[in-house]
Amino acid sequence: MRDFFSSKASRLWVVLAGFFMTNAIVAEFIGVKLFSLEKTFGFEPVNWTLFGQGNLSFTLTAGALMWPAVFVMTDIINEYFGPRGIKVLSYLTAGLIAYGFLIVFMAIGLEPADFWRTAHIKPDWTAEEQAAMRAQVTDYNAAYGIVFGQSLWIIIGSLVAFLVAQVVDVGVFHRIKKMTGESKIWLRATGSTLVSQFLDSFVVVFIALYIGQQLPFLQVLAISIMSYIYKGAMAVLLTPAIYLAHYLIDRYLGHDLATAMKETAQQG
Fold first, then answer.
1. Which of 37-41, 178-182, 205-209 has the highest mean pLDDT?
2. How far apart are CA 75 and CA 20, in angstroms?
3. Is residue 13 part of a domain?
4. With pLDDT > 70 as the criterion, what percentage of the chain qualifies?
5. Which domain holds residue 210?
6. 153: Cβ–Cβ under 8 A, 6 or more apart, which residues?
7. Is residue 4 one of the residues assigned to a domain?
8. How many beta carbons lie within 10 A of that of residue 262, not counting itself?
9. Per the structure, how many domains does the chain have?
10. pLDDT at res. 268
11. Is a pLDDT exceeding 90 seen at residue 264?
């Protein structure tokens, strides 16, 4: 074990894999919250119309805050550890996410302690403060179940979309790299993300909303496009972060080791 952690490549793998899995898992669990991107930055919603569907804006899951980091980690791990490394990590992460949701559902089913149902209402508060809190949350246990008890279709959609996007990202990344060599990092990193997130945006929304909630096709299509516009924009904006990550990792590994790892990764 000591020999494993004495290797720079092994230490790099642990850090990248840990960061990748943490961001993906956290994104899934906080994704139950929807927020307005425009209002968060102090702007009015864009209220676009697509396919006859009006009042479309950038209403995103809170998980959207974490997924850009997963995009970057996918390309970095792909660069240094190859398709096998990122595929194994993706399958492991999907399994851990499913396991996490299973434990959450078990926790929701536990019989709560009687006092815990109102534990969010503090006895030293004024009557007005207690009334204000009760107006927001009457039963702490019910709120817990609502927040963490995500729809099964949403969970299935996000897991399927995650795996499809990761597999496609790996394939596109290495195909571009075979054509361009070591140059044009931006093309293989950003290009593979744009393709994979196109699929991710449509798969998760169609499974969760079209199959799960049976929303009209055109409405689901419009929502998917709005989601992809955000993800595509983030893929482009994060390109400098990928170059910075490459610089820092190459400096940490040293030129010879970094080059050897990239060559091995390219061989699959």
1. 37-41
2. 11
3. no
4. 98
5. 22-58+76-110+150-266
6. 207, 208, 211, 212, 213
7. no
8. 18
9. 1
10. 63
11. no
Do the bridges between strand 59-61 and strand 34-36 make them parallel or antiparallel, or are there none, so unpaired? antiparallel
Structure tokens at 122: 């503090």
CA-CA distances (angstroms) from residue 4 to 9, 79, 234, 236?
Answer: 9, 21, 35, 36
Residue 6 placed within a domain: no
Mean pLDDT of the chain: 90
User: Taking 90 as the threshold, does the pLDDT of residue 154 lie above it?
Assistant: no
What's residue 250's pLDDT?
94
The Cα–Cα gap between 218 and 225 comes to: 11
Ramachandran category for residue 54: left, alpha or beta (phi over 0 → left; psi -120 to 50 → alpha): beta
Global pTM reads 0.88
- Picking from 232, 223, 202, the residue whose alpha carbon sits closest to that of residue 51 is 223
Place of tokens 């956290």: 26
132 lies in some domain:
no
Q: What is the dihedral of CA 218, 221, 223, 226, to 10 degrees?
A: -130
